[in-house]
Amino acid sequence: MRSFRFNLREAGGAFGDLGTFLPHVISVLTLGGLASGGVLFGFGLFYLVTGLIYRLPIPVQPMKAVSAVIVTSGLPPGAVAATGLLLGVVLLLLGVSGAIDRMARAIPASVIAGLRLGLGLGFAWLGLEMMAEVPWLGVGMLVLLGGLTFLRGCPATLIGLAVALLAGQAAGLAPPPGALAPDFALPALVLPSLAEMGEALHQAVLPQIALTITNAVIITAALARSLFPESGGAVTERRLCLTSGAANLLLAPFGALPMCHGAGGLQAHHRFGARTGAAPLLLGVALVTLALFFAEAAVGLLAMIPLAAVGAFLVLAGVELAVSRRLFDARPDCWPAIALTALATLVFDPAVGLAVGWTIETGRNLARDLFGSRRSPRD
C-alpha cells in the first residue's frame, strides 16, 4: 500500500486540476446560484475520502454536462440535488452488480487510446481558448509551468498560482480580495420535490450518465493502471462507481454539485507532481476550511486567479493525457479505430467516441474472422 507523502511536490500536485475545477465551480456559483458552502464542502469531503480510500491522487471533478445545464437552463438547487441522488443510485447499481466491469472488459485497448487522445486534445483546446483571453499571461504561464515541471521536486503549481495572482492583481485582470473574516456556517439541507426529480432526470441525468461511465470510470481506471503500475490496480471501475455513487447520494442533500472522478484530473494531478493520496487530502482540507469558515468570500477568492493562467494548466495536462503509449505501440490496422474514436470524442463527447470506436473494432474483428476462415492452410 502506497504511503502518504506530505511535501511541497504533493502540495503542488494537489492544485494541478484547477483548469477543470475553477471554470465549472465559479460558473455554477455565480450564474447558477448554488450555495458556495454546500458546493465546496462536497468537493472537500469527497477529496478527503478519496485520498484515504485510494491513497493515490485520484481527482474529484464536477460533472460537466450537469454544470452546463445548471448555467444554461437555470436548474434550481432542488433539481441539482435530485440529479446527484439519481446519478448516485445509478452508479452504485453499476458497481454493486458488477455490470461496469463487464462493460470495461468489452472495450478494446485501441478504443481506450482513442478516447484518451480525444479527451486530451479537447482539454488542451479548451485551455488554449482560456489562454487567448489574455495571451501574454496565458503563454507566459505555459512557459513558466513547462519549465518548472522539469525541476525535480519543484512545486510548479504553487509558484504558478502565486505568479498568476500577482500578475492578475497588478494588471487589473481579477477583482481584489474582499473581507476575509471567518464566519462558521454549515451547509444548508436541500431536499428535492418529486417534480424536481423528474426535471433532473431528463435535463441532467440522462445527458451525464454516459459521460461519467466513459471518462470518470473506464478511462480513469485505465489511466491509473498506466500511471501507477504497482498500485493503480486498486483503482478499478467497480470501486470508482461505488465511491462516486456513494458520495453523490450522501452529499447531494447538502447542496453539493454532482461529482465524479476523471481521467483529465488524474493526469493533471500527476503532471504537476502528485504521487500519493496526500494531494487529495491537502486539497480536501483547503476546500472544507473554505466552505465552513469563508463561504461568503469563496467566490471572490477563487475569481482572483485569472482564467487565462488557469488555461495553461489545462493545456499541459491535456497534452499528456492525449499521448499514451498505445499510440506508438498500436498495429497499423488499429489506427483507424484510434483516430475516429478520438475525432468523435473531440467533436461530440466520449460516449459517441466509445460507440464509434467499438463499432469499428467489432466490424474489423468480424471481417478478420470471416475472411480469415476462408483462407486455406497454405495461405
Summarize the helix and strand pattern as letters: HHHEHHHHHHHHEHHHHHHH
Structural class: mainly alpha
| Average residue-wise pLDDT | 90
Terminal CA distance reads 51 Å
The helix count comes to: 18
User: What is the helix content?
Assistant: over 70%
Ranges where pLDDT stays below 50 over 5 or more residues in a row are 374-379
- Globally, the shape reads globular
Number of domains: 1
Main sheet?
A: 2 strands, antiparallel
> Largest sheet, order of strands side by side?
1-2
Number of strands: 2
Q: What is the CA-atom radius of gyration, in angstroms?
A: 21 Å
Beta-strand percentage?
under 5%
Fold and architecture overview:
The chain is mostly helical and 379 residues long. The protein has one domain. It is 70% helix and 1% strand. It has 18 helices and two strands. The chain has a two-stranded antiparallel sheet with strand order 1-2. α2 runs parallel beside α4, α7 (109-131) packs antiparallel against α18 and α12 (263-271) crosses α15 (307-322). The protein starts with 7 loop residues before the first helix and ends in a 6-residue tail after the last helix.
What labels would you give this structure?
two-stranded antiparallel sheet; 70% helix; 18 helices; disordered C terminus; 379 residues; mainly alpha; 2 strands; globular
Topology diagram in text:
Elements (H helix, E strand, L loop, with lengths): L7 H7 L3 H13 L5 H19 L6 E2 L1 H10 L3 H21 L1 H7 L3 H23 L3 H14 L7 H15 L23 H34 L9 H15 L7 E2 L2 H9 L6 H16 L4 H6 L3 H16 L2 H5 L5 H13 L2 H24 L6
Antiparallel strand pairs: 1-2
Helix pairs in contact: 1-9, 1-13, 2-4, 2-15, 3-13, 4-10, 5-10, 5-11, 7-10, 7-15, 7-17, 7-18, 8-9, 8-15, 10-11, 10-12, 12-15, 17-18
